[in-house]
UniProtKB/TrEMBL annotation:
GO cellular component: protein-DNA complex
One Gene Ontology MF term: DNA-binding transcription factor activity
Domain of life of the source: Bacteria
Record Pfam families: HTH_1, LysR_substrate
Similarity field: Belongs to the LysR transcriptional regulatory family.
Name assigned to this protein: LysR family transcriptional regulator
Keywords on record: DNA-binding, Transcription, Transcription regulation
Organism classification: Bacteria, Pseudomonadati, Pseudomonadota, Alphaproteobacteria, Sphingomonadales
Span of domain HTH lysR-type: 6-63
Length: 298
């Protein structure tokens, strides 16, 4: 066994540089000076006897071997964190730091009514929240940047465990004065796919809306997209089409002040499952189940 092994700090510097592509931003992310980070990476290269990063005035480029080392470093750092979490989970649950990513179609509607009670009942829990699209949140989870993710299923999550929070129906939203005012319960086949407004790729609600319509061809013909539910609501309110909204957003008042009606959709897939997910075999699994229980109670 080699006497000289990379340190956790050196691996953290390397991963931060790979993520940011810039020495200054990587140093800020690691809370060190740029010279300290640069020296740490050079020490790592000297220790391994290879070049991991090609440096120039304008570009930071990783060598093929450097990319392989970064991938391995991600796994080692995640396992180091899990070692720390294993010790922490042996004590009081939901104490200390917990990093949770939340998707944008949940965060502004569910968290405001859940977090005040959670802060009151779990004052020793330091919950760090990051709002990310479903794609980015799952990547953060598997790269170790997030401990758990609050998102909507079904969605491709990789090897994870999850705990059910609630079911969230999807409704069809359209202008009140629409001459094509549909009946009180809407059938998927009556939706004009040329008028359907969707979220951009990367949001799981886009896939859920398409599944609810029972018409795969909608994906190709829906040309108008929005970056957020609030943007879609404004587009519908201005007569540009119709969209699908989750019940939790409507309950939170997203349609207040608009001339929009929302009606239920009669479909086997007109609902999404809100769930808390975490990496399979995480030592904090029981803690996440307890957190899910707290979120359900909210």
């Amino acid at each position: 066994m080699s006497t000289y092994l990379p340190t956790i700090k050196q691996l953290q510097y390397l991963v931060a540089l790979h993520q940011s592509g810039h020495f200054g931003r990587a140093a800020e992310a690691c809370f060190v000076s740029q010279s300290t980070l640069s020296a740490g990476i050079r020490e790592l290269e000297s220790l391994l006897g290879v070049t991991l990063v090609e440096r120039s005035r304008r570009v930071v480029r990783f060598t093929p071997l450097g990319n392989q080392v970064v991938a391995k470093a991600h796994r080692l750092l995640r396992e180091a964190e899990e070692l720390s979490e294993l010790v922490q989970s042996a004590g009081m649950p939901l104490v200390g730091e917990l990093r949770m990513s939340v998707i944008p179609t949940i965060a502004p509607f569910l968290l405001p009514r859940m977090l005040p009670r959670l802060r009151k009942e779990r004052p020793q829990l330091k919950l760090f929240l990051r709002e990310e699209t479903s794609d980015a949140a799952i990547e953060s989870l598997h790269q170790g940047r997030a401990d758990c993710v609050l998102l909507a299923l079904p969605y491709a999550t990789g090897e994870v465990e999850h705990e059910h929070i609630c079911d969230d129906p999807l409704l069809v939203a359209f202008p009140k004065d629409d001459l094509r005012d549909p009946p009180s319960i809407i059938l998927p086949g009556t939706i004009d796919q040329g008028r359907l407004l969707l979220l951009e790729d990367g949001h799981c609600l886009r896939d859920h809306a398409l599944a609810a319509c029972d018409r795969p061809g909608v994906r190709a013909s829906a040309t108008m997209i929005g970056t957020s539910l609030h943007t879609l609501v404004q587009m519908v309110d201005n007569g540009l089409g119709l969209t699908m909204l989750p019940q939790m957003a409507i309950d939170a008042g997203i349609l207040n002040g608009t001339n929009i009606i929302a009606r239920p959709l009669q479909s086997d897939h007109a609902s999404r499952e809100i769930a808390l997910v975490w990496r399979r075999n995480s030592p904090r699994g029981e803690e996440f189940r307890l957190l899910a229980q707290e979120l359900r109670a909210g």
